[in-house]
Amino acid sequence: MKLKKLYIILPIITAVLIDASCRKERTASVPEAPYQPTAYLLQYPAFVDSQHVMVVDAPNNPLTVEGVALGKKLFYEKMLSNNMSMSCNSCHKQENAFSDPRRFSLGTDNASGNRNAMALVNLAWSKQFFWDGRRNSLEEQAHDPVTNPKEMENSWPIVVQRLQNSSTYPDLFYKAFGSRTIDSIQVTRALAQFERTLVSYNSRFDRFYYRNIFSAISKQELAGFEVFAGLGRCTNCHAGVTITDHSFRNNGLDAAPTDSGLAGITRNPADFGKFKVPTLRNIALTAPYMHDGRFKTLEEVIDFYSDNLHGSSPNIDSTFHYSPTGFHFTAQQKADLLAFLQTFTDSNFVSNPAFSEAK
C-alpha cells in the first residue's frame, strides 16, 4: 500500500518541479524594458544664440532626461565622499549660485584648500574649468573632487562599489546609459549632464539689456552700468552674454603672486599669476571674491580696482596698463557700480526646484 502511494506521489512531485522550472525559465526570458533615453532640450533664451556664444558640444555625452535626473541625484549624493559626509552640494550651494560662502572649502577631514570654490553657472558655454584651467570638459572636472585628498578623499572603485550595491542606482544607470554595471565614466558623465542644465539668463540686467525693458533697472544702476562699461573697463574681461570672456588674466592682485595659477598647468612663465575670469552672473550671491577668496564683500572688490591695483605685478593684464594703481572711482561712482552689480542676480536660478535636492 505504501509503495502504491509512492508511485502516485512521485509523478506529482516531478510534475510540480518541471512546472516550477518552466515558470522560472519563462520569467528569466521575459525581456526588460528597452533602453530608450529621452533627449533633453537645454532651455535658454534666444538672445543667447543671437550673441554668437554657442553651447560647447559634448558628442560623447548628449543630454537626456534620464542622465540629467541621475546627475542631479549624484550631485547631492554623499556616498561619493570617503566617510559619506559630503556631496558636490557641500561646496556648491544653490542659494549661493552654486558657490561656497566659505573662503576655502573644507574636505571630509576638515582639510582646507587654497582656492575658493567657483560658482557653477552656464557651464555649457565653457571649455576650461577650475581657476587654473586644468580641465577641458565638465566630465573631467567632475572627476577630480572625489579623489582630491582635501575634498572628498575617496577612490573611484569604492564609489562605484557603493553605487553598485545600492537598491536604486543600477536601475537609474540603466535608464541613463543602458547598463546596470556602473563605472566612474558614467558617474562623471551624469554629473556633467546635470551641471550643463544650470542655466542662468533671467536677471534684471537681461531684461534691461537684451529684452529692452528699460524699467528693469534704476537710474542709479544705469549710472553704475556706465562706470562698468566706461571708466572701469570691466567689459574688457566681463563681456558678452556670459559676462566673462573665459580668458585667463592677471588682474594685479599682488605685486609678487604666490600662486602660479595657469602657469602651474602650462609651465609657461608668461602665464604666471593668471586665473580664469569668472562670470559676474549672480555675483552678489557668490562672496567671497577672487581665486583665493580674499575679499569678503563687493565693496572691497570695488575698492581694490579703484585704488589698490599692483601695476608692477608680472604679466598684469593690458587692461590695467593705463591705470596701474587703479581707476580711482569717486564715492558716488563706487555706490553706482555696487548698485549695478546687483542687477546680475537671477532669483529664479537660486530657487529653481529643478536644481534642488529632491525631498
Structural class, please? mainly alpha
In what range is the share of β-strand residues? Answer: under 5%
**If you compute it from the alpha carbons, what radius of gyration comes out, rounded to the nearest whole angstrom?**
27 Å
Helix share, percent: 25-40%
Query: At CATH's second level, what is the architecture of the largest domain?
Result: Orthogonal Bundle
Q: Regions with pLDDT < 50 over 5+ consecutive residues?
A: 1-30
What is the approximate shape? globular
Describe the sheet with the most strands. Answer: 2 strands, antiparallel
Topology:
Layout: H1 2-29, H2 46-50, H3 65-75, H4 138-147, H5 156-165, H6 169-177, H7 184-196, H8 204-209, H9 219-229, E1 248-249, H10 263-266, E2 275-276, H11 298-307, H12 331-341
Antiparallel strand pairs: 1-2
Helix pairs in contact: 3-6, 3-7, 4-7, 9-12
